[in-house]
Design brief:
The protein is mainly alpha-helical and 477 residues long. It has helices spanning 13-83, 88-152, 185-192, 219-226, 232-247, 253-259, 266-277, 288-292, 296-308, 320-332, 339-350, 355-371, 380-393, 401-404, 408-418, 420-423, 434-440, and strands at 466-469, 472-475. The protein has two domains: 16-151 and 181-192, Four Helix Bundle (Hemerythrin (Met), subunit A); 219-440, Phosphatidylinositol 3-kinase, Chain A, CATH 1.10.555.
């Protein structure tokens, strides 16, 4: 191998050996520092907090055992009370056992909430620690990258032209470490290559009674079971969000959709309301007053969970290819885009959807149109909201990296929010009319529980009645 440069410039063997020795020592020291400050710290953190999480879980289990025992005592007192003739002593013992059971239930809910709070704090601390370690690793890779460039860059007068001539100089290939570009950084790379969240089908247990739950059931099945094209629980949630938007005059209504369960204290509320809704077909057993008690962020999180667990998106895959042709037509043909023709075509295509999908999409789009009407077209919150909701509206059968980066769903979601009146024209009233909105967003008339009570004992006067306390219901059979 012949190089076109003076022999004096070529590094000697001793220079190579010295450079390699210094690099090996520096990299060994860096590896030990990473191991000490990264791997060991994460290992100790996981071991410590795993013990504390297990302790919190043990507290929940122990209080749950006490709660079950109190229910057994309550059942025994109830049987003794109904077995007596006068029932004076039995009534006091029964009410005392009922109070004890209620306190035990409250203790269980408190420890469940405390456990969720602590688990969330632990997760936040773990992510923060992982971020610091990742930053440390990034700095180490950047340092190694600069070291490689400094020590192994080819001379400036060395030729690297490819040639078939045997007498031509042989090019010297230098290998660079495949690490993030120091000028960009991993955060910029993650922002450029962001793909959203991958949708996974929820794992559901088959119910003993068909259609006895709310989440994970197709809209067509719920429509057939409830005779309402829009699931009752979803209608109540959207009515509550509209009431919060119009009556409470929220300053930033979009934030409730973007952040979801922003507050850690709202996580138990989301789970409890979800369990209540999942106890009846389509959530029809949950009264509207129960839904109104929750914060808008809790309700919006449940709406997104409900839509995300549907077998298919609100806009089925049958019209996906036709929608793609509509939105890509003006990109392939050199002509000015006509919004009127595009919106009329989209409106006609959506009319081919099943009734349940069309009505649900129309009601949701109407609420989001009112929510975002004050935002400018270039608002970052608007695009963040579109990025959050578009996978729920149009979802591929199998999510891939290409489908997650597809902009068709974002374009459709943008039109649904900003051009709602053109896609869903009102037949009888103006959609901006308050009376029209009140009628559209009216919640279903679900009657409240109708347990009858005895005037003397304040106890349901029938065997097999149910006692309701907050989000828990005791059933006496």
């Amino acid at each position: 191998m012949e190089l076109h440069q003076p022999a004096s410039i070529l590094p000697t063997l001793s220079t190579y050996a010295t450079t390699l020795s210094q690099m090996a020592a520096a990299h060994r020291l860096l590896a030990e520092r990473l191991s000490q400050n990264g791997v060991v710290v994460i290992k100790d953190f996981c071991a410590k907090h795993r013990r504390l999480v297990d302790l919190k879980r043990t507290e929940v289990d122990s209080h749950y055992s006490v709660y079950l025992k109190s229910l057994q005592e309550l059942e025994a007192k109830r049987a003794a009370f109904f077995g007596e003739v006068e029932g004076v002593v039995g009534k006091k013992e029964y009410l005392g056992a009922l109070t004890t059971a209620e306190h035990a239930r409250s203790a269980v809910e408190f420890h469940i909430t405390e456990f969720l709070q602590y688990a969330q704090d632990t997760q936040h601390a773990r992510l923060q620690l992982s971020r610091e370690v990742f930053t440390m690793l990034e700095d180490a890779q950047t340092n190694f990258y600069h070291t490689q460039l400094q020590n192994w860059a080819p001379p400036s007068n060395q030729t690297t032209d490819d040639s078939d001539d045997e007498d031509s100089p042989t090019p010297v290939q230098t290998t660079k470490l495949a690490s993030p570009d120091p000028l960009l950084g991993t955060q910029e790379i993650a922002h450029v290559l962001q793909t959203g969240t991958r949708h996974t089908q929820p794992i559901l247990l088959d119910p003993i009674i068909p259609l006895c739950q709310c989440f994970g059931i197709s809209l067509e099945a719920l429509h057939q079971a409830t005779s309402d094209p829009i699931p009752p629980f979803l209608r109540k949630c959207i009515a509550s969000l509209h009431e919060s938007l119009t009556l409470r005059k929220l300053k930033t209504p979009v934030d409730a959709w973007i952040t979801g369960s922003a507050g850690l204290a709202q996580v138990p509320a989301i789970q409890f309301l979800r369990m209540e809704a999942n106890g009846t077909c389509g959530g029809s057993g949950v009264h509207y007053s129960r839904v109104k008690r929750e914060e808008p962020s809790v309700i919006s999180a449940l709406v997104k969970e409900f839509l995300g667990e549907l077998p298919v998106g609100l806009v089925g895959t049958e019209v996906e290819e036709t929608l793609r042709i509509v939105y890509d037509a003006y990109e392939t043909v050199d002509m000015e885009e006509d919004d009127t023709i595009r919106l009329k075509t989209v409106s006609s295509l959506l009319l081919t959807l099943p009734t349940s999908h069309y009505e649900t999409l129309k009601l949701l789009s109407h609420l989001l149109h009112i929510t975002t009407k004050d935002l400018p077209d270039t608002s970052p919150k608007l695009f963040h909201l579109i990025r959050t909701l578009s996978p729920l509206i149009l979802r591929a059968k199998i999510e891939t990296t290409e489908s997650l980066q597809d902009t068709l769903r974002d374009k459709l979601c943008y039109d649904l929010l900003r051009n709602y009146t053109d896609i869903f024209p009102a037949l009888d009233d103006d959609p901006t009319n308050d009376h029209y909105n009140d009628r559209v967003f009216a919640p279903p008339t679900t009657p409240p529980p109708t347990d009858t009570f005895d005037d003397d004992n304040d106890i349901p006067n029938r065997v097999g009645a149910s006692w309701g306390y907050g989000s828990t219901t005791y059933v006496f059979c």
